[in-house]
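TASK: fixed-backbone design
INPUT:
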């Protein structure tokens, strides 16, 4: 970290700042010129977290050398993170596909969908038991009953399951049933929830917030990682812009940017990005081509009668056709599905 002093800073003010740095165990490098005085704090910058250096007398600005998302930044693990979820490797060369209905509705529908997406090559089953909805009158999910259905589908198909956690009070319950905890876009900056998920050590899929910058997404991941859990998937699911042709605007550039900034695997959710099933295929192709480590795709056997997001769900036959195309694109970029 570099601390730049005002031209008017006194010797006493400079000494006061250097003493503060030394108190936390860092070394100090002092450089004094005719026009500017700079102090370099050498060592673990995280030891200075919480110390308001810019508020100290004589300080003009503070410039961190390390990125603020220290545990999830690329420098911490240049080779990238790969972790195992019940036999499924997340990260690395193999692209993983999460598929299933937006919400759990019935046992028959869920198990039918699970069997079909697995046969097409999906490796993880999705399904919402607790649903965050814009309207309080919309279907909110089946709760624990939905989790039981997901677990039954896993026992039948062998597929790991992912479902969304909305409330820290439900964390223990969710951990009994699911293999990956999903943190939705609306909870990306629910910092209490992120800290609790970090303590759980359960793998997490963290969705980018509706209006969040890439830095804000990474800082939210840092909250989880700060508690010792770096088994995190970052998920780009579209951001809110002035464009109304789609539900959200998929930031396809987020994938290479994130891959350069962090060691965490990056997925794309083309279903929520657009809200239109006909756009899922082209955006899925683009996601694989640009380097995504996985996709999260909504699939429903009867989207016309779906209780949630039927308009963006693929029918199983369409999903099967898409998987064949994606396999060719993955091969072209040196990866597998």
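OUTPUT:
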């Amino acid at each position: 970290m570099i601390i730049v002093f005002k031209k008017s800073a006194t010797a006493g003010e400079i000494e006061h700042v250097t003493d503060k740095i030394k108190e936390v165990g860092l070394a100090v490098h002092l450089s004094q010129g005719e026009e500017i005085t700079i102090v370099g704090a050498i060592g673990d910058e995280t030891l200075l977290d919480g110390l308001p250096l810019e508020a100290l007398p004589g300080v003009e600005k503070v410039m961190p050398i390390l990125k603020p998302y220290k545990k999830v930044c690329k420098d911490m693990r240049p080779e990238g993170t790969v972790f195992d979820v019940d036999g499924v490797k997340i990260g690395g060369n193999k692209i993983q596909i999460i598929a299933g209905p937006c919400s759990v509705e019935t046992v028959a529908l869920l198990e039918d969908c699970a069997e079909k997406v697995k046969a097409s090559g999906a490796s993880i089953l999705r399904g919402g038991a607790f649903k965050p909805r814009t309207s309080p009158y919309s279907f909110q999910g089946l709760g624990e009953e939905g989790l039981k259905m997901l677990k039954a589908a896993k026992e039948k198909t062998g597929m790991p399951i992912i479902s969304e956690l909305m409330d820290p009070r439900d964390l223990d319950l969710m951990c009994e049933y699911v293999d990956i905890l999903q943190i939705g876009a609306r909870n990306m900056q629910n910092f209490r929830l992120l800290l609790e998920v970090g303590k759980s050590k359960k793998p997490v899929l963290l969705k980018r917030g509706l209006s969040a910058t890439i830095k804000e997404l990474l800082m939210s991941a840092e909250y989880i990682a700060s508690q010792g859990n770096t088994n995190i998937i970052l998920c780009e699911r579209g951001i809110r812009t002035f464009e109304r042709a789609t539900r959200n605007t998929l930031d396809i550039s987020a994938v290479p940017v994130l891959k350069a900034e962090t060691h965490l695997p990056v997925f794309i959710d083309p279903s929520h990005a657009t809200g239109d099933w006909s756009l899922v295929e082209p955006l899925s192709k683009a996601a694989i081509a640009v380097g995504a480590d996985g996709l999260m795709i909504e699939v429903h056997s009867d989207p016309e009668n779906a209780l949630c997001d039927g308009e963006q769900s693929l029918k199983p036959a369409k999903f099967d056709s898409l998987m064949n195309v994606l396999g060719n694109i993955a091969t072209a970029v040196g990866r597998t599905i």
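COMMENT: The radius of gyration is 23 Å.
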